[in-house]
Queue: 2 jobs
Job 1
Amino acid sequence: MEKVDVGRKILSANETYALKNRQLLDRYGKPCFNLISSPGSGKTTLLVRTITDLMPTLRIGVIEGDLQTDIDAERIRATKAPAIQINTDGACHLSASQVNRALEKLPVESLDIVVIENVGNLVCPSAFELGEDGKIVVLSVAEGDDKPVKYPGIFAKSKVLLVNKIDMLKGGFVEFDLDRVRSDARKLNEAIEIFPVSARTGEGMQNWYDWLTRQLRRRS
Amino acid sequence: MHEATVAQSLIEAILREAEKRRGRPVRAKMSCGELNKINDEVFTFAFEAVAKGTLCDGMTLRIEHKPLQARCRTCGEMFAVDVSNTRCPGCEGGDFELLPDAPLVLEEIEFEGAEDGEG
């Protein structure tokens, strides 16, 4: 019997592709964000509104991840922004190699920002680096204010938390303690930027747009 | 179920080592952090399923869970964080710095009949 110390990162194959994506984005100097949330939190609606409001000053290209269909890519393309759909065929997260193939099809050079909309899932996508500059987690108020403590990984790793559908708070449709979310998320990640928004009514979106625009200057 | 993806990557890593050593892998140890946590039961199930038909079939796997470490800004204590109850055990304070979480690592493999034994 022989015991061998290996000390090798298990996801190193994924990290190799993440590095390739990083190098491709660096070559053009384009920031890239990995948008992660549960299904139905409003990621695509948020992107459609963001693209529509910021165009043509800010040109955003999108890589869409879903188990099936190209419904989301079609919604993005309706804004005239380029979108590449990845169907994971049951896989619960996007891998860096899938994103690598999609990046090759996206006209990165003519864009200002690349956004990867991950598969709707608050757990698995947080474990797979895609070569992004940062993760952005979206939490809609209907999901409940206990999510940062229940799913700490993604809140600990994200640069930005977008608390979406805040228009629902006004009608008293849901009980949601925004201060609790702020405090729980900051315990895990003191640098996280938190923007309460409604992609439907546009409330709070300007703060998010300002943050996104600042990322351009940081890169150039 | 990203455990299946991780299991696939782990088996590929073990097989690469097995090729170098020309031995049959019988036991392996891996480790994971608190924010990249792997569920032992689900992962073992995925590992056994993916291992079928490979040299890893029948291997025993041990998973070491490395706690998330923090440093208290008030009293300087280093401690393992319980993410559902984030308090410093030294001073009960809540102002601390989280240290980087441990990644998923293949730590060691035990081989049977390694090349020097087979000679």
Note: Chain A has a mean pLDDT of 96.
Job 2
Amino acid sequence: MHRFANPQRFLSIARPLTPWLVGVGILLVLAGAYAGLLLTPPDARQGDSARILYVHVPAAWLGMAGWGSISIAALMQLVWRHPLAGLAARALAMPGALFTAICLATGSIWGRPTWGTWWEWDGRLTSMLVLLFLYMGFIAFTNLDGGKGAISRPAAIYALVGAINLPIINRSVVWWNSLHQPSSITIGKSAIAGELLWPLGLTFFGFSMLFAAIVLMRMRRFLADARNEARLRRMAVEY
Amino acid sequence: MKPKQQRLILAGLAIIAIIGAGLLASVAMRQQAAYFYSPSEARAAHIAPGTSARLGGMVERGSVQRNADGITIDFLLTDGRATVPVRYQGIVPDLFGEGQGAVADGHFDANGRFVADRILAKHDENYMPPQMGQMPTHNGGDSLVVDGANSGAPREGQNK
């Protein structure tokens, strides 16, 4: 990991990687959407409404993976003072919040025809809403210092404390009686029949690639901002 | 000790403390954070008649009775250990059915019957194509059995 902490080396990898992530990601999402809408059979009980899982599940994963990555980046900044870690945490916040919001919105749309309600204060739903609020707080936190460079120490600590919500989201359907069903896919087994499962793999990797591309583009933008500012400062000294 | 190692130890201790606090809070909230009572929990809690409560369980097979007025239904909600009779007037969600999970908002009346103002359908974590779902051995809804007894049970008897 330390090898990539050098901004120059990071850019030499991120620059050629981004168009590939965008291109392959879009193709996978389109293929997954086509397959999930037209090729797979409807679910035996829920019918066609279950098809929303091809968006809902990747969005939930990315919302949680986003915060997990933010807290790892925050730890790396706090302990090792990596120059890129703070930038990564900053870059992850917006797409993470976006996918958390997509997860909540698709879940709500899905809940109406299946459960019979748009929203319930159920353990899983509530903890996911808390994650969205955590993201909003983190974005506000990282904008306090002008939105540039490494994140502040309080913001990094906030990111670490917020990570406690991730196991709570994951376990909420096991610890507490909940309206939301338990996980369909656990390590080594799936309660989703193969005929319905395979497009999920396409959208899962497709959305993940698009997410990674957004994060890399945002990191490059932050680096470019920093470089611009350094140049302006140099020019101001010279004149 | 180098400052880097000091920071690492400090951060490690802080993370352990945070996780510990989170786990303790989650265990302490076990009852408060539950979305519904299972029938056996409701019985053990001795909920007073008229108090608002939410009850969740499996709709017992063969128990749904539609009354002559056309809008009142009676059914039994069970978790395998206790069974509660439920009465509801209104439209149930499409997924409501015998052998499936359901959640009822309402209160107990003086006779121990649960009078629901609202019914929500629960669905389980299994997804399958229609022809598999129609098999009589399909065990959909078993995930509702509480205390982590998950419906990991194999879906036997499915033809390919």
Note: The two ends of chain B are 64 Å apart (CA to CA).
